[in-house]
Specification:
4-stranded antiparallel sheet, alpha+beta, 4-stranded mixed sheet, 4 helices, single chain, about 40% helix
Length: about 150
């Protein structure tokens, strides 16, 4: 399941849905929640506004997850990513992966979140408490990390 939405999500419901869907088969269920954090040490973050390319964004996230499903022995995945204006401390993204073995769940989950940061068409505009607004640039370290996943598989 891949969903891009404005409203918040309930983590316990998402985990329960994944768990119940594969009850008796799950040996591991990994969950990751990303939050709006304070990016700027000089002036506190007030909000983060996320824009996306509808349709294309969901397809890209699905492609990322399906690749993970082919590469690792995972039973299922769930990604919920929020868009719109989010305040400091609010949830941005949920990634859930269930598998028979924990190693596959950990690897697939880490790959999915790394690839989301570099491949999914999201744009982030940060607003500081001072009123300053700017577009958040992709970090070179995120690009390097995603490239390492792909090199490990070649």
């Amino acid at each position: 399941m891949v969903t891009v939405q404005e409203h918040d999500f309930k983590v316990s419901d998402l985990i329960e849905r994944l768990h119940q869907k594969h009850a008796g088969q799950n040996g591991a269920l990994l969950s990751f929640i990303g939050y709006v954090r304070d990016f700027n040490p000089d002036s506190p973050t007030e909000t983060l506004f996320l824009e996306h390319y509808p349709g294309m964004c969901e397809r890209e996230i699905t492609d990322i997850c399906e690749y993970a499903k082919q590469r690792w022995d995972i039973l299922d995945y769930c990604v919920v990513h929020r868009v719109g204006e989010l305040h400091l401390g609010e949830q941005i993204v949920f990634v859930g992966v269930c598998s028979i073995h924990r190693g596959d769940a950990f690897a697939a989950g880490e790959y999915i979140i790394d690839a989301l940061k570099t491949r999914a068409p999201f744009w982030k505009r940060e607003t500081l408490q001072s009123g300053e607004k700017f577009w958040v640039q992709q970090r070179d370290s995120d690009v390097t990390k995603t490239a390492q996943w792909e090199q490990q598989h070649d």
